[in-house]
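Spend some time on the protein that follows and explain the fold to me:
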Amino acid sequence: MPHTKELENFVTQVRRDILRQVHKVNSGHPGGSLGCAEFFTALYQEVMDYKSDFDMNGIGEDLFFLSNGHISPVFYSVLARSGFFPVEELNTFRLINSRLQGHPTTHEGLPGIRIASGSLGQGLSVAIGAAEAKKLNKDSHLVYTLHGDGELQEGQNWEAIMYAAGNKIDNLIATIDVNGQQIDGATDQVLPMGNLKAKFEAFGWDVLEVKQGNDISKVIEGLNEAKSRTGKGKPVCILMTTVMGHGVDFMMHTHKWHGVAPNDEQLENALAQNPETLGDY
């Protein structure tokens, strides 16, 4: 198991990657990406059981589906630094004919990406299908997903949430990034989501909370606890509280950096707060 400091260094480098990706093309979504750096690092560096040789079927390994696909910079960084494709390819983020489009896509055959995502609200439905396929194949591995809290305003989520519990999809762990922000403002101002724990429990899910979603140790602890609750007749939900823009002081606690790239001066400031640890691409 990598030492906690090594994981923290990984997270810091991922934050640098996110900032540099969106700055280069003056486009992308740094806020949510920065807030989920610990989650992706925990998942791919510690928790998930996956094969080094990627294939779309994913038989005999854990699967992950990103539903809120606009936070692709963090996904691409962690995939690259976990060996799915060359780290240098991060230089091509959002460029024409690049495999690293603003929202993940499958038509270019990018290792690590099994669905196109970005049309919010659809990821859980896809993950349920994959989880059911694993049950049919007698594959004991798990399916993980990530969703934004604002994304839950999309109605398709709740149909999927109801279906998963009703059909005992208990090899599924859905994490909600509860950062309280979305593109137009705070979620409580745009459309309040109310008590998410009570909602998921009312729909028949087993729910646990990770209150410190930007603490790598707490995230790993929460994911492992969620794993221990699978196979017991209920899908599992993690409500993970994070800070949008975490790690960059002027980006934190605001929706304003949901989809805005830093300028040259802002980039220099942000990178100074996240020193190079694993080597820039």
Q: What stands out?
A: Residues 4-272 form a domain with the Rossmann fold fold (CATH 3.40.50.970). Residues 225 and 235 are 13 Å apart (CA to CA). The mean pLDDT is 97.
